[in-house]
């Protein structure tokens, strides 16, 4: 009967994403109203779109399974960036075919600001998180770590908005129906987060997995799944840079605001070698994005080619293989 949780987890993952999108809607309206660029708008919209990570960490902290939240936030940040790049690449090529352009020309093009405003500041938040959680004298998460992480997100959001001013402004209207959808989004998000954490605990217990490992390979992949559909939809609508960079903004929030619930209850790092290796792959993904995209400059844009997408895929395969091997031999 425990395997009935599997479809439940899938439904819950999409439910939390739907709830997050309802919360992100008013923030998208703010972005349009004040004319922030696509790269700068990502961190703002992430306050809503990354809320599933906050919800999962809150539920895991309240239910005494904080290690599931820690594993989920680490694992999802490794796989989400490659997934986003691959899906965005496919969606952009579909756009070109629909517009009768040469399907073999170019690649996935994004604004240059996507590196300086999103990828590299995200890498900085990862570095701060590593400094808070990994060194032996203060290994794990304590309340002071949560306070520092929140301040880091404030700095991340501020720099993005200040550097991303000057975009095209537009008129925005807001209805009572949209307000009700946002409220419903909060409720759905809460229920979906509870199911994700509970289902992960049940399946992980059946398989004999540690909570951290359950978070890394069950919750993380479930929460990354809706990213496929979200990225496809946003890129197909023509918002290529926002569709790609939102993943950096989402996970910058994961390593900052979403840390607070875990820090309040306190989380120890029980499997330090695995956490250290996973953190290495977490940092690798934005580095790959910055390096690979900057290799291909197209005027005021950067581009990722098909071979670059394959590099991201290879990195995920290596990640799964290395961590899987460590689990087997440990």
From TrEMBL:
Domain of life: Bacteria
Membrane topology listed for this record: Multi-pass membrane protein
Keywords carried by this UniProt record: Membrane, Transmembrane, Transmembrane helix
Pfam families: Na_Ca_ex
Domain Sodium/calcium exchanger membrane region: 8-158, 182-296
Entry keyword Membrane: yes
Gene3D superfamilies linked: NCX, central ion-binding region (1.20.1420.30)
Record-linked InterPro entries: NaCa_Exmemb, NCX_ion-bd_dom_sf
Ranges annotated as spanning the membrane: 68-91, 115-134, 140-162, 182-200, 212-235, 247-266, 272-292, 304-329
GO cellular component: membrane
GO biological process: transmembrane transport
Intracellular or extracellular location(s): Membrane
Main subcellular location: membrane
Identification of the protein by name: Putative calcium/sodium:proton antiporter
């Amino acid at each position: 009967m425990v395997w009935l949780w599997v479809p439940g987890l899938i439904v819950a993952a999409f439910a939390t994403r739907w709830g997050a999108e309802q919360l992100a809607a008013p923030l998208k309206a703010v972005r349009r109203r004040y004319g922030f660029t696509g790269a700068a708008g990502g961190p703002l919209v992430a306050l809503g779109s990354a809320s599933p990570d906050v919800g999962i960490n809150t539920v895991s902290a309240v239910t005494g399974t904080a290690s599931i939240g820690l594993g989920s936030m680490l694992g999802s940040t490794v796989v989400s960036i490659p997934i986003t790049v691959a899906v965005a690449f496919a969606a952009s090529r579909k756009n070109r075919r629909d517009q009768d352009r040469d399907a073999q020309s170019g690649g996935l093009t994004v604004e240059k600001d996507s590196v300086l405003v999103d990828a590299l500041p995200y890498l900085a938040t990862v570095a701060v998180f590593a400094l808070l959680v990994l060194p032996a004298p203060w290994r794990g998460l304590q309340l002071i770590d949560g306070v520092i992480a929140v301040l880091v997100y404030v700095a991340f959001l501020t720099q993005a908005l200040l550097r991303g001013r000057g975009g095209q402004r537009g008129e925005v209207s807001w209805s009572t129906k949209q307000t009700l959808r946002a409220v419903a989004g909060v409720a759905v998000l809460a229920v979906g987060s509870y199911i994700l954490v509970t289902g992960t605990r049940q399946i992980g217990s059946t398989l004999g997995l540690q909570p951290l490992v359950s978070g890394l390979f069950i919750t993380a992949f479930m929460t990354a799944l809706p990213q496929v559909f979200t990225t496809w939809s946003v890129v197909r609508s023509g918002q290529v840079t926002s569709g790609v960079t939102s993943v950096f903004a989402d996970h910058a929030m994961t390593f900052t605001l979403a840390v607070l619930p875990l820090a309040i209850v306190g989380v120890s790092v029980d499997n330090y070698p695995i956490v250290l290796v996973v953190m290495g792959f977490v940092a690798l993904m934005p580095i790959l994005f910055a390096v690979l995209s900057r290799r291909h400059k197209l005027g005021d844009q950067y581009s990722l080619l098909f071979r670059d997408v394959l590099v991201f895929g290879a990195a995920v395969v290596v990640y799964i293989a290395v961590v899987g091997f460590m689990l087997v031999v440990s």
